[in-house]
């Protein structure tokens, strides 16, 4: 920008210098000739301007700077007036055509820059290939004796390096079977650790080979005093770079070691990709890091530049063909693997990656080729740095994502002791932690993509992060995330404390009232924590929560007028809890429904009746609560006997039934003796005798059923009749019928109770 500003100043100076004679003529020749710019300054400014215009990037920046300066110098729209005596008329209709014209100019400028860049690339390619033409015509001589010496030196050090590498690989392979065994029976974290460990061992073998090669270089061609020559150093560097590249390929594909493979490659596909990419690595590394430098030293830099271009061009063509041949194969593999995923988002993402991966590969290959052509001298450093950092970034992102995915699928496993103490803690963690891990996995993916864009220079993420906007954004959203995390920890602690208080321990029994109150406290605390966490999070990200709170108050007031029943539910429920009228587990009669209380909220009670039907009753409809579970209960026994029964014998039988009942398992549930009330009613067919049994609350129904069984048993033993309603029919004789003509009355005989003799005549009813 400093150079551009200088050029802009020089351009303005030249324009003023050109306008000086005109201004002098208009002013009547009063301006002296000495005010013109010196020729030397104009010459220097012209050269600087030509230099800027020759560079496409500087030229585009200069155009933008001129447009900005022109826009700043233009008067405001309201200040534009037509000169003369005419009224000021704002020029409003010109803005839209000017915007269209500026947009068209920008599109044209960008198109021209693209065409210029394409021409520059073609020019650089032809210039690179010109070296081969010069060598072929003999304009550049080849020093064959020097080529022979360099080939011998390089061959010796590479042979020694590979011997050391293969020897150390034989030693390392003795450790691989045991590591593979651990990985086969271990989890995802164990597999990842062993894969990293084997990669470190592979890297160590490469380092051993590199050290052996350096030792061979020092021992040959002059000994230690002569040191390592440039050619030997280039060969060893190529060996080391190629070895580390192969280590990276083995980390990704794990050929021949399926138990260590993190990616869903089959044995066939892993060997295929490892072999093809390894061949490409050999071609590129030995070509660029060995053949090109040797050509520069032995022949000329012109030949080295031509070889560099050919190596890169053929390598890029090889990769393009490889990607084109396997685009459908990779797409089908991605689809097959996506079918086994549980997350719908992960399925769609993987299918999309399978459909578009070849386009990303084409873009990467084109970017590498452009860098090699435009910046041949530092292209190796740029590409190796960017590619290496990209591979490390992708590997790290994949490793973290796989570990997080394993934790998501497996869930959180707490120790058995903690599960016995807090049985609901693990379920709560598994309800929230997997979602948090999914968010972390998405954040890892996003960070990986941003780092890749930063590595390749497409975005300046690091600069943006240290800028004011980046720091503010990270601090605000980071603070909001911390608020949510702390709120979750507080909620988890409160829920665990409630669970702990609701557990019965030795010497401590949880009452129904405590269980109900703690359940209500749990619900209320959850609502308070969620609301406070959301408000504080919104405040941290810059949202003004004052209007939200005021709006919530207004909305709450409006709702209170429109939802009076809801307010009544809450208030009535609060008084019911204060008076301890209903607790969870009680048997109550509420709003005409009798059942067991299963749950209580701030506005309703949930009950289940004897038929299994669930009733949710709002507190606003409760005018009376009948609780069967307070202090003690009674079973009222109302026993009916026949009118000819001795009442004393009947009472004694009822007491005998009570004595037998107390000898059973129901005895501990009975409080006190049997309360005999005596005869309470003369019914239509029975005399009712009432007694009462005092029981533990909630056991009156079971005790009553058992007592009735014993009453029936004792009454049967003592021949005490339990009457039932009977009907007697009487046939009336008409008054006009004579006594002699009265129809004969048949006597009904119970055949089952009367035994007839075999020779006895049948009873005709006359006797």
From TrEMBL:
<protein>
    <submittedName>
        <fullName>Mechanosensitive ion channel protein MscS</fullName>
    </submittedName>
</protein>
<keyword id="KW-1133">Transmembrane helix</keyword>
<keyword id="KW-0732">Signal</keyword>
<feature type="signal peptide">
    <location>
        <begin position="1"/>
        <end position="24"/>
    </location>
</feature>
<feature type="transmembrane region" description="Helical">
    <location>
        <begin position="545"/>
        <end position="567"/>
    </location>
</feature>
<feature type="domain" description="Mechanosensitive ion channel MscS">
    <location>
        <begin position="565"/>
        <end position="628"/>
    </location>
</feature>
<feature type="transmembrane region" description="Helical">
    <location>
        <begin position="305"/>
        <end position="323"/>
    </location>
</feature>
<feature type="transmembrane region" description="Helical">
    <location>
        <begin position="479"/>
        <end position="500"/>
    </location>
</feature>
<dbReference type="InterPro" id="IPR049142">
    <property type="entry name" value="MS_channel_1st"/>
</dbReference>
<dbReference type="Pfam" id="PF00924">
    <property type="entry name" value="MS_channel_2nd"/>
</dbReference>
<feature type="transmembrane region" description="Helical">
    <location>
        <begin position="439"/>
        <end position="459"/>
    </location>
</feature>
<dbReference type="InterPro" id="IPR049278">
    <property type="entry name" value="MS_channel_C"/>
</dbReference>
<dbReference type="InterPro" id="IPR045276">
    <property type="entry name" value="YbiO_bact"/>
</dbReference>
<feature type="domain" description="Moderate conductance mechanosensitive channel YbiO-like transmembrane helix 1">
    <location>
        <begin position="386"/>
        <end position="464"/>
    </location>
</feature>
<dbReference type="InterPro" id="IPR023408">
    <property type="entry name" value="MscS_beta-dom_sf"/>
</dbReference>
<dbReference type="InterPro" id="IPR011066">
    <property type="entry name" value="MscS_channel_C_sf"/>
</dbReference>
<dbReference type="InterPro" id="IPR010920">
    <property type="entry name" value="LSM_dom_sf"/>
</dbReference>
<feature type="transmembrane region" description="Helical">
    <location>
        <begin position="233"/>
        <end position="253"/>
    </location>
</feature>
<keyword id="KW-0812">Transmembrane</keyword>
<dbReference type="Pfam" id="PF21082">
    <property type="entry name" value="MS_channel_3rd"/>
</dbReference>
<feature type="transmembrane region" description="Helical">
    <location>
        <begin position="193"/>
        <end position="213"/>
    </location>
</feature>
<dbReference type="Pfam" id="PF25392">
    <property type="entry name" value="MS_channel_TM1"/>
</dbReference>
<feature type="transmembrane region" description="Helical">
    <location>
        <begin position="520"/>
        <end position="539"/>
    </location>
</feature>
<feature type="transmembrane region" description="Helical">
    <location>
        <begin position="279"/>
        <end position="299"/>
    </location>
</feature>
<feature type="domain" description="Mechanosensitive ion channel transmembrane helices 2/3">
    <location>
        <begin position="525"/>
        <end position="564"/>
    </location>
</feature>
<feature type="transmembrane region" description="Helical">
    <location>
        <begin position="379"/>
        <end position="404"/>
    </location>
</feature>
<feature type="transmembrane region" description="Helical">
    <location>
        <begin position="349"/>
        <end position="373"/>
    </location>
</feature>
<dbReference type="Pfam" id="PF21088">
    <property type="entry name" value="MS_channel_1st"/>
</dbReference>
<feature type="transmembrane region" description="Helical">
    <location>
        <begin position="150"/>
        <end position="172"/>
    </location>
</feature>
<feature type="region of interest" description="Disordered">
    <location>
        <begin position="733"/>
        <end position="767"/>
    </location>
</feature>
<dbReference type="InterPro" id="IPR006685">
    <property type="entry name" value="MscS_channel_2nd"/>
</dbReference>
<dbReference type="InterPro" id="IPR011014">
    <property type="entry name" value="MscS_channel_TM-2"/>
</dbReference>
<comment type="similarity">
    <text>Belongs to the MscS (TC 1.A.23) family.</text>
</comment>
<dbReference type="InterPro" id="IPR057485">
    <property type="entry name" value="YbiO-like_TM1"/>
</dbReference>
<feature type="compositionally biased region" description="Acidic residues">
    <location>
        <begin position="756"/>
        <end position="767"/>
    </location>
</feature>
<keyword id="KW-0472">Membrane</keyword>
<keyword id="KW-1003">Cell membrane</keyword>
<feature type="domain" description="Mechanosensitive ion channel MscS C-terminal">
    <location>
        <begin position="639"/>
        <end position="722"/>
    </location>
</feature>
